[in-house]
Every structure is written in structure tokens, then in C-alpha cells.
Design goal:
Shape: globular
Helix content: 40-55%
Oligomer: single chain
CATH architecture: Alpha-Beta Complex
CATH superfamily: 4'-phosphopantetheinyl transferase domain
CATH class: Alpha Beta
Number of domains: 1
Strand order of the largest sheet: 1-5-4
Structural class: alpha+beta
Strand content: 25-35%
Radius of gyration: 14 Å
Order of helices and strands: EHHHHEEHEE
Largest sheet: 3 strands, antiparallel
């Protein structure tokens, strides 16, 4: 059963501007995400997708980032390159309070935009 749905759209150019300041990268992204972004040729596009994925999840949870930190949500990639969530204990608690056991993620890029969708699934 679907327990939550969230989506977010993020501008790549805006993200490229933010990435000019190292503090932005270290404030909003985990160390593993930072390494992944730095290793990509399209850094702005990659960062925009990851940021949108974080926003999509807190929208699906109905919490926003007021109760959670942006670094409590990490975006990783499985052995096939598909994005997935790595959640802190605080986010897992919010997920379970919502009645969900798992969170699914899809990220897409087109031109100057990156979009992410989060789906929460429960019993």
C-alpha cells in the first residue's frame, strides 16, 4: 500500500551557481554524496537530482526539513546505478510513524531541470 508520495523539481543552473561555494556542498550533502557529485562531469545536474530526491522524500513523509536535517537523507546508487535512499534513524522513525516500511526513488533529468519522485510503501 502506498503511504506517501512526494516530488520535487530543481533547476540545474541554480544548483551550478550554488556549487560555486564549497560551503553549500558540505552543508547540504553527505560525504559520500559530495564524492559522487565531484566525480561526475555534470556536477550541477547530479547535485540537482540528489537535492530534489531529498526534498521529495520529506514531502512524502509530510515533515519537511523542519524536523529533519537535509543530511539525514542520503542518496546512494545500487549495483545497477539506480538511485536509492539511505536513511538515518530519525528518518526511519518518521517513515515508520507514517506507516511505511520502505521508500522508493526515481530521479530524472531534462535540460535545465532535475526531478525526483519518492514513494513510501507500507503494509
Amino acid at each position: 500500500m502506498i503511504c506517501g508520495l512526494g516530488c520535487d523539481l530543481c533547476g540545474v543552473r541554480r544548483m551550478e551557481e550554488y556549487l560555486q561555494k564549497e560551503r553549500f556542498l558540505t552543508r547540504y550533502f553527505t560525504e559520500d554524496e559530495q564524492a559522487y557529485i565531484r566525480a561526475r562531469a555534470a556536477r550541477g545536474q547530479t547535485a540537482a537530482g540528489i537535492f530534489a530526491a531529498k526534498e521529495a522524500l520529506v514531502k512524502a513523509l509530510g515533515t519537511g526539513f523542519g524536523a529533519l536535517s537535509v543530511r539525514d537523507v542520503e542518496i546512494a546508487h545500487d549495483e545497477h546505478g539506480a538511485p536509492c535512499y539511505v536513511l538515518s534513524e530519525r528518518v526511519l522513525l518518521a517513515l515508520h510513524q507514517r506507516g511505511a516500511q520502505r521508500a522508493f526513488l526515481s530521479i530524472s533529468h531534462d535540460g535545465d531541470y532535475a526531478m525526483a519522485t519518492a514513494v513510501l510503501e507500507g503494509e
